[in-house]
Design goal:
36% strand; globular
Length: 243
């Protein structure tokens, strides 16, 4: 089942970023350059990597790159390109033999497909900031089989469309028209769960990051806050609803 299975922070200073996320978000890193986990006994879910020179030359800022598990990387690239996506370089072979192919989706957001196996562990939420949430939902449904759930009319802010990895599954993220607003680019925004949002925001600020506006209430009663780390990569904090 295609799901986000690996979250790679591509940044200008991996060591500093690692220290920031360990303190501010609570990510667990065993030692040195080891992959990070959400908890010490959980699966490895991501890495801190240097922003590729080619990406920096194109003007790409530090960013989180979500990897989607697929059965056949080359075939997935071909299908995505047929839908209007653009490859961002050749298929890479990573340590452990995993294949990875970064792409820009038809509406401009960057992600990767990988031969890494899917994992049942996931982040708190995965948001796609797009210019056309209806088109985005159709693209990802066609590409990966991600299934629509309820939609929320946000008035002048457009429509927010929740999705699941498969029909009948729990909600794992949403797609919005946020990139139509000034200052917001198309991108996947990954949410990290925190027990106390206000305390976590304090750690973000003391660590050199910043909160992008005030926390917002989710339809389910939780709270989220969009943030940037000290190197400029966007992420979000997600406090679950009480009870």
């Amino acid at each position: 089942m295609p799901t986000f299975c690996w979250y790679e922070l591509r940044t200008t200073d991996p060591a500093a970023a690692r220290a920031f996320y360990v303190d501010a978000v609570g990510l667990v890193v065993a030692a040195g350059d080891a992959p990070w986990r959400l908890r010490s006994d959980g699966p490895e879910l991501g890495e801190f990597a240097t922003l590729p020179a080619q990406a920096a030359a194109r003007g790409a800022p530090a960013h989180w790159l979500g990897h989607v598990a697929v059965a056949d990387v080359s075939a997935a690239v071909q299908r995505f390109v047929a839908l209007g996506a653009s490859p961002l370089g050749p298929v890479q072979t990573r340590p452990g033999g995993h294949l990875v192919a970064p792409l820009r989706d038809p509406l401009g957001s960057v992600l990767a497909v990988t031969s890494r196996p899917a994992t049942p562990a996931t982040l708190a939420w995965c948001d796609l900031h797009s210019r056309d949430s209806a088109q985005a939902a159709a693209i990802y449904a066609s590409m990966f089989g991600w299934a629509p759930r309820q939609s929320h009319d946000l008035g002048p802010l457009g429509t927010y469309r929740e999705f699941a990895w498969q029909p009948g599954g729990p909600g794992v993220g949403g797609m919005s028209d946020a990139a139509l607003r000034p200052g917001i680019h198309t991108h996947w925004l990954f949410h990290f769960a925190v027990a106390d949002l206000d305390a976590a925001l304090g750690r973000v600020r003391s660590g050199g990051g910043r909160a992008a506006g005030e926390p917002m209430r989710t339809p389910g009663g939780g709270r989220v806050a969009a943030c940037e780390d000290p190197q400029g990569a966007a992420f979000a904090l997600h406090e679950a609803a009480p009870g």
